[in-house]
Sequence to fold (430 residues):
Amino acid sequence: MIEEIARKARRASILTASLTTESKNQALEVVAEALWTNKKAIIEANEADLAQAEQDAISPVLLKRLKFDAAKLESAVEGVRSLIELEDPVGQTLDCTEMDKGLELYKVSCPIGVLGIVFESRPDALVQISSLALKSGNTVLLKGGTEATNTNRILADIIAKAGIQAGLPEGWMALMETRADVKAMLELDEYIDLVIPRGSNQFVKFIMDHTRIPVLGHADGICHVYIDSDADMEMAERIAFDSKCQYAAVCNAMETLLVAKSVAGEFLPRIKRKYDSVQVEIHGDEESRRIIDCRAAQDEDWITEYNDLIVSVKVVADLEEAINHINRYGSHHTDAIVTSSDKHAKRFFDLVDSANVFRNCSTRFSDGFRYGLGAEVGISTNKIHARGPVGLEGLATYKWKLVGQGQIVADYAGTGGRAFTHRKLEKKFQ
Fold:
């Protein structure tokens, strides 16, 4: 069953790769209209999922993710339409080299092919991912969290049919619904080009360990904010609060707050008052607990992604200790420094080995939509291909296109052969 779905997606990917920008944009508009036209049915399906989730007593944080009301649907539709305004990542001439007169080499962006994407119980993620796949000319197999089964099913049906109505090939998008489907998908390296898992550390590691297909993603979102010795205290308070509390259940929320010893006595009491106002649970190291009343941090706190209103706090001697802590315990996702020192900021940017490194702003800005990437299919801590929020550009690769006029390699071989010019040209592939 899944093999046949993947085979159809592979055939469809050959056709979607050749779609014009205009046809893809028209399809996105058809998808947006179809979603809004069917809003009543979508919301009813989501209400059924919510009712079941409440019966199953899932956490309030996960329940918030699952909710897909009229406001979230409207935002999702706006997100689909926002992609229409973005530049097509496919067909871009990335480089052009004259190898010899009349022999021109082009490096041109193209779709990756077939994507297999497994994501959490967030119905808006299904809309984002499928529309990003459409705009980038890829086909996609999707598996969402089981808590969102009804919502995912109706969204996938609407989007897939709208795409076909707009001229996309059958099989350009398909929904998987069981863990067995995912396990089967991981064996289909003949048809699937890239797997993007979103979810828990344990889940992502399982995916990485059980497939030959390249995997793009991150296993953890252990993000830090470091309050430097010369940070503005009011700014530091706002950033430390927003990074933890604006939305605690996501991978770019701060999990560990590091505070320079020289300002800990002033900063920790004020941030504790702020955290107490929304019932944040603080796990502090020994030095922190001398200053504020909080639970004792354990070794595992430094490597825990809470996804909740819990934060670990550590007082560090200086910038160097902060950087060392982040590189040792962090997940290379998003880390921020609050400082007025350009010198300290530069050292933080240079030495923190993360996909997203910030100065004087919340870790929550680490997001494809906020970056202007047209939402995101996920966040990658890989160092090869895409890194950080993965938007349209991260769903494209490239191919080399060589255009000649009858040249053969024998003409360039040996001591008397022609020499290559290897001259850079400002030309686009036509």
The CA atoms of residues 331 and 373 lie 22 Å apart. The two ends are 40 Å apart (CA to CA).
